[in-house]
Amino acid sequence: MKKKITVIVVDDSALIRALFSDLLGSDPDIEVIATAVDAYDAREKIKKLNPDVITLDIEMPNMDGIAFLRKIMSLRPMPVVMVSSLTQRGANATIEALEIGAVDYVPKLDSKTFDAGKLGAMLIEKVKAAARAKVSSPSRPPMLEKPPALQITGKFRAGALIAIGSSTGGVEAVRDIVTVLPEDAPPVVITQHMPGAFTKTFAKRLDGLAHMRIKEAEEGDRLESGCIYIAPGNLHLRIERTGGSYWCRLGDGEHVSGHKPSVDVLFESVAEAAGKNAVGAILTGMGKDGARGMLQMKKAGAFTIGQDEATCVVYGMPKAAWMAGAVDVQLPLSKIASEALQKCI
After folding, report:
1. The pTM is what?
2. Of the candidates 208, 146, 190, which has an alpha carbon nearest to the alpha carbon of residue 281?
């Protein structure tokens, strides 16, 4: 008999504890073995019950979720799915949690947009992915200043463009790549699966650590060397080439490959706009968004890179791209930035 994924729900709200228990318990592969009202309650139950995953509210009394997460990841690393509000404060805290080592997060839905079915499906999917994720003690202290930029010999060719797609585990992976790119690197466009309230905060945090300028993409932005553009949450980012320049085009519309923004949408547009001048990298994430678009990039002559299984938090998107024949080379995360730059010379 298949072992169920065991979960402890940590939240100071009795309503949320009951709701999450019911939603997760509706899946035959998941069992909520306990709930906890705060970090101290959770600590004792984690020691006693040894769950596979915990869901952790960011805003709790006595000890907030971020402080408790730091203790978990330093003393007893385990898969954690954060629960956060779609606010500026929630965005800052969520991105900090992902940098500390949380696998993923689910946004709290407000009363106007609450949909139990949608929340339940999201929660179940992310708990299952977390149970399969690679989790370890932080190998380094939080990044507080810019790391040295990579030294590349040679001149970047005109028209070179780097496109990156990522999802679960991508906050750390994207950070590790973009913060070592030199200030004269070709333009970089990124789609990271994230809600609209979070991407501007994500871009701002990265901008303070990188040698390149980093911003949330806006409609009509002209891509420039030394600048990185991140797709806004809840909008698709496409790249268009007119007048010898690349331009950002934002669109609403339906979800593509289950997402908005979609990596497939970005990669397909880059294949058409940049062709052989592009380099694509697909990073950690669950699902297969990006595989189809990366295949189009490869067919158009672009060089394509997949993050290898050993360094992925979730080897889903890179695996799908590899299985589709869309990836030229699989590399550990630490080698992707250098390889991408070399292919732009």
Report:
1. 0.93
2. 190
For the annotated catalytic residues, the residue numbers are 167, 193, 289
Q: What does the DSSP 8-state code read for residue 332?
A: -
pLDDT tens per residue across span 268-315: 999 999 999 999 999 999 999 999 999 999 999 999 999 999 999 999
* Chosen domain end from 132, 147, 174: 132
Pick the closest to residue 32 from 124, 94, 129 (CA basis). Answer: 124
170 and 33 co-located in one domain: no
Q: How far is CA 338 from the centre of its chain?
A: 21
**Pair 238, 281 in one domain:** yes
Residue 107: is it exposed, middle or buried by C-beta count within 10 angstroms (0-12/13-18/19+)?
Answer: buried
Q: Which domain holds residue 10?
A: 5-132
Residue 217's contacts (CB-CB under 8 Å, 6 or more residues apart) are 189, 229, 230, 231, 232, 237, 248, 250
Alpha helices in the chain (DSSP H): 14-25, 39-49, 65-75, 88-100, 116-132, 170-178, 196-207, 263-274, 291-299, 317-323, 333-342
Using one digit for the tens of pLDDT, what is the confidence trace for 63-105? Answer: 999 999 999 999 899 999 999 887 778 889 999 999 899 999 9
- Does residue 147 carry a pLDDT above 70? yes
Spatial separation of the C-alpha atoms in residues 120 and 19, rounded to whole Å: 9
Contacts of 22 (CB under 8 A, 6+ apart): none
Cis peptide before 318 (omega within 30 of 0): no
Question: Based on the structure, what is the number of domains in the chain?
Answer: 2
| Spatial distance between the Cα atoms of 325 and 291, rounded to a whole number of angstroms | 9
**Residue that terminates a domain, selected from 115, 132, 149:** 132
CB-based burial label for 154 (10 Å; 0-12, 13-18, 19+): exposed
Q: For residues 198 and 94, is the Cβ–Cβ distance under 8 A?
A: yes
Backbone angles phi, psi at 216, to 5 degrees: -75, 130
